[in-house]
Amino acid sequence: MFIDKAEVIVTSPDRNFVTLKLTTDDGLSGLGDATLNGREMAVVAYLKDHIVPLLMRRDASCINDTWQFLYRSAYWRRGPVTMAAIAAVDMALWDIKAKAAGMPLYQLLGGASRKGLLAYGHASGKSIEELFDSVRAHQQQGYKAIRIQTGVPGLASIYGVASNKTGAGNQGKRYDYEPAQRGAYPAEEDWDTRAYLRHVPTVFEAVRNEFGPELVLLHDGHHRMTPIQAAQLGKSVEPYDLFWLEDCTPAENPEALRWVRRHTTTPLAIGEIFNSIWDYQTIISEQLIDYVRSAVTHTGGITHLKKILDYAAQYQIKSGMHGPTDISPVGMAAAMHLGLAIHNFGIQEYMAHGEKTNQVFEQSFRWEAGMLHPGEKPGLGVELNHDEAGKYPYEQAYLPYNRLADGTVHDW
Ligand code: KDG
Ligand code: MG
User: Fold this and answer.
1) Which of 33, 159, 272, 294 maximizes ligand 1 atoms within 8 Å of its Cβ, making it the mutation to test the pocket?
2) Which of 130, 227, 335, 344 would be a feasible disulfide site paired with 321, CB 3.0-4.6 Å?
3) For residues 280 and 310, what is the distance between their CA atoms, to the nearest angstrom?
């Protein structure tokens, strides 16, 4: 079974997606997600110019060897562009292998370890009333776990707060926060850590009082605090029993988490911007986190993320795979198969994709009572509709960036 054809498909139904499609000489095809939000075309060039020529006539069944060959023969290692490109090849080869076996991929990864995957959605609101509406709307959709992000008094715009309102007259409207905005320049947002630290505990107190102790609550700090500020926040939300506090400090300095850990028992999650097992070495072996946030798409694919999660399992650290809308339905399917199979699954982030995206990517996953399941179709269970994809050419889009009141650029 040889790789005969490799296509890199860029489509922008509700947002940009980069997909690799590999086809074998005996007619099987596999899909891989290579979407790197705001830097999509860098991965397209890496795939088209440097990877696709190496794949032609390779044995499609040799997934490990192909992974090592692409990783080591480049000499230059790691990095989001390289690892997203390798991830796409890896996913597509697993898709092909599972189709050849006539099984859903999770069966090849060892079979199901659970009935379904607890998933969390994104509730948000500029005010407490809007936030409560959004939490209720998520509960109506079946979510048992909900991430809470709110506006902060004095700040005009903030990460994670959707612009579309929920509630009366808006039922059914898509209101998830979509940070990447189409256009030629990134949008500017404002930031004030002290205002944020004062406000967030009051929000969690209000949410717990309104929705009770059962609801699983999460929060994303999005890399903005210093270690000691993160420790303060972790401590101040302890009474509200968070499932996790995510990305409390900038992820490049994993040692910062030692300081946070010393001061708070709020569980910590990090890793959506990591791309290899080496990024996790210190924080897993020193047990500085509780959840691994990597996406299959950004961490070298199923082969490599499974290694990270197996390593994490030795330290009772669980998965919490990244699942915003910039992970395509192909990347989400890969996460669901992996999450269903591993023992140390924790939770799966799930932001439903828009209608156009769901027409481009035909999917077989199930959403029932707050749980995801990848379905029983052989392979990943996702097929690309080329006609639909062709309707939506790439559109330049950027993630926003932050400035403090005095004009200093801050982590976004
Ligand atoms: O591309 C960046 C987004 O995926 C990121 O901002 C989303 O932090 C995020 C999350 O937790 O989903
Ligand atoms: Mg995040």
Assistant:
1) 272
2) 335
3) 12
Q: For residues 247 and 222, is the Cβ–Cβ distance under 8 A?
A: yes
CA R_g for the chain: 21
The pLDDT tens digits for 10-30 are 999 999 999 999 999 999 999
CA of 407 to the centre of ligand 2 (A): 24
**Residue of 348, 345, 344, 332 lying closest to 382 (CA atoms):** 332
Measured CA to CA in angstroms, residue 150 lies from 129, 171, 363, 406 at distances of 10, 20, 32, 23
Per residue in 115-161, pLDDT (tens digit) is 999 999 999 999 999 999 999 999 999 999 999 999 999 999 889 99
Domains of the chain: 3-104 (3.30.390.10), 117-377 (3.20.20.120)
Cα 324 to middle of ligand 2, angstroms: 8
Q: What is the dihedral of CA 246, 247, 249, 250, to 10 degrees?
A: 180
The DSSP call for residue 239 is: G
| Strand 397-398 to 409-410 pairing | unpaired
- 224-227: long-range pairs with CB below 8 Å, 24+: 224/191, 224/193, 224/196, 224/402, 224/410, 224/411, 224/412, 225/193, 225/197, 225/249, 226/193, 226/256, 227/256, 227/257, 227/258, 227/259, 227/260
